[in-house]
Amino acid sequence: MSAPFLSQAFKENAVDALANVELQRALGHVERGFIQKRQKAVDALPEFDALRHEARAIKDHTLSHLDLYLEAFEGKARQAGAEVHWAETAADAREAVLSICRRVGAKTVTKGKSMISEEIGLNAFLEKSEIKPIETDLGEYIIQLRGEPPSHIIAPAVHVNRDQVEADFRRVHTHLDPKRDLADPVSLLSEARATLRDMFLAADVGITGANFLVAETGSSVIVTNEGNGDLTQILPRVHIVLASIEKVVPTLEDVSTLLRVLARSATGQELSVYTTFSTGRRRPGDEDGPEETHVILLDNGRSEMLANEFREMLRCIRCGACMNHCPIYHAIGGHAYGATYVGPMGAVLAPGLFGLENTANLPNASTFCGRCESVCPVEIPLPKLMRHWREREYERHLKPAAERNGLRIWAFLARRPKLYRLATRIGLKALHPFGRRRGRFSSLPLAGGWTGHRDMPAPAKTSFIDQWKARS
Amino acid sequence: MSPENTEHTTASKPRVGLFATCLVDLFRPQVGFAAIKLIEASGCCVEVPENQTCCGQPAYNSGDRSDAAAIAKQVIAIFEDYDYVVVPSGSCAAMIARHYPELFDDAYWARRAMALSAKTYELTAFLYDVMGVRDVEAAFAGNVTYHDACSGLRELNVRDQPRELLKTVDGLAFTELKDADVCCGFGGTFCVKYPEISNAIVTKKTAAIAGSEADTLVAGDLGCLMNMAGKLQREGKHVHARHVAEVLAGMADSPAIGEAE
Ligand code: SF4
């Protein structure tokens, strides 16, 4: 049994991440770079907000007829010679990949960047089955060498710095001259290219994800900046597309609208460097293309989300803008979340895919500042959806007892104004003498979470309401 | 003050219910008095219902919908007869104006929540947008910077109103804060549930504040202010923190937040 990366030690991970100097330096680039680039692109397109509404409407429409569009996609893809496999669970999807690989006797598979592959833990599973997966996206390649999960959905190695990449390359590329000069980042890039070129040619199967599936044509669409995805799907004899069911949209026209908001929100580009449409397998007379094409459609909890209060999450087009603008992500990076999907989108998606009991910290670790929602190209109300997870957590009694009890006592009082007045009067009377001299506390019993890092202003001697009553 | 609003007779003056918020009630009563002064000067009469407690945010954001709804019903019943409800806090105002309507499935309470929502405002937005206040009669000698508390900014579009009003205070110099729209790390119970993360976020905020020219930090939410003031003081940074209402009302002569008398 293979499973995706999942850690429940969110709080410990976060503390470690905050103390990790190299990570903190890398996160500084996210905080500045991505935000500025997106802002510039948005400022240059006055109709950007109108486009966001349109993008949202396309996804909402598709989601309310998802079964029809999936069937239409399946029909068209089959007509074009692709085989379509339905996978209800992560295990089903892994098995589908494995049985194709086994049937064609595959030893190596090249892979374009695919978050679904991460979600189902495909690499570890293939390795166990003695099939060698090779990531061809530079970022994915780097984290594969390091044995790490991605820390960002569009920039999987954003936590890694140049020196670390050099060290990894020297460690793994032992067939090369140990004295070679890798000081220039470009030399790292060419070394990766050269290494990967041989792999592309040796691979029996190429696996890619899909940014979109097009119902009217049966095509899958990927966007990349490196072109590695194209080689992955064209060179090997067999091409497998791994996609989750909410990736389908009705028409090519819809894809073009979504592409306009996707690239701008993700990297501030007008369009990614490569946008590749592939439809079915190689036809007689085609110069290249795979002899076999498979599309694996993964559900893995999504049908359930479609029917409940989390449906809006399925609009997500995986641009990464929400994490790029998230103060929590800026502070701790992606790995601390302990799940394939990170940042605000991960905080909503991960509990749906991997179980709330395994991911309960994620929707709680948010200040609800709302910056994610304000930049999301498909207007997903991420804070509201995180709150819905907290509601389920509360209903299912998953919250720690101390928090639950504290909340109960407070709510009990807040609902009884007379008692509340009395209790606060007593509280103020007790606290005021201690805080009066300095106007604040530097430590307070039961408030260590606050006073561990900052002073606590002293409360008033008499509450506002009591003072007001005394005056009037 | 805008002249058309000062000419109301008492009978025709809008009746405003002040929702003071639990933090102002317990930690900083002068914000309540400053708010009253500002609302009255804008041409309204103000009442402070004494059975108010809290808006219910702690329950709502902790996933406890039933307590949140019970508290919301209480607030609705207390405040629904006023012409307006004004709140010196963006997040508590947003709780009432944006979230109360989402709390109820039954049409009867949903309708009452909607009605209250439509007349509930954050203080500076009420003064500027509803009452048309364009300048205040106040003086403040100091260089002030403003932090946009998240809920007010993103849920209620409170951005220009406090800045415009602050700029009319005599003697006040205004400095824009770098990343003013980025969260301060308070987040209600977040700051005690995830203290290290909250600390990392507020540390960036206090660095931006200390790096500005300002000697005074103002904001419209007491929770965020207590967080930032507490951090500034822990770090020994000499910037005073005050609620925007105190400065606008000319009532900024008492000790700043967390400072001794
Ligand atoms: S939730 Fe929105 S902002 Fe975040 S990745 Fe998805 S589409 Fe992008």
From TrEMBL, chain A:
Keywords: 4Fe-4S, Electron transport, Iron, Iron-sulfur, Metal-binding, Repeat, Transport. Residues 306-337 form the 4Fe-4S ferredoxin-type domain. One of its GO terms (biological process) is lactate metabolic process. The keyword Transcription regulation does not apply. Pfam families: Fer4_8, LUD_dom, LutB_C. GO terms for molecular function: 4 iron, 4 sulfur cluster binding; metal ion binding. PANTHER family: LACTATE UTILIZATION PROTEIN B (PTHR47153:SF2). This is L-lactate dehydrogenase complex protein LldF.
TrEMBL record, chain B:
GO terms for molecular function: oxidoreductase activity. This is L-lactate dehydrogenase complex protein LldE. Pfam families: CCG. One of its GO terms (cellular component) is cytosol. Coiled coil: none annotated. PANTHER family: LACTATE UTILIZATION PROTEIN A (PTHR30296:SF0), UNCHARACTERIZED PROTEIN YKGE (PTHR30296). Residues 16-96, 144-228 form the Cysteine-rich domain.
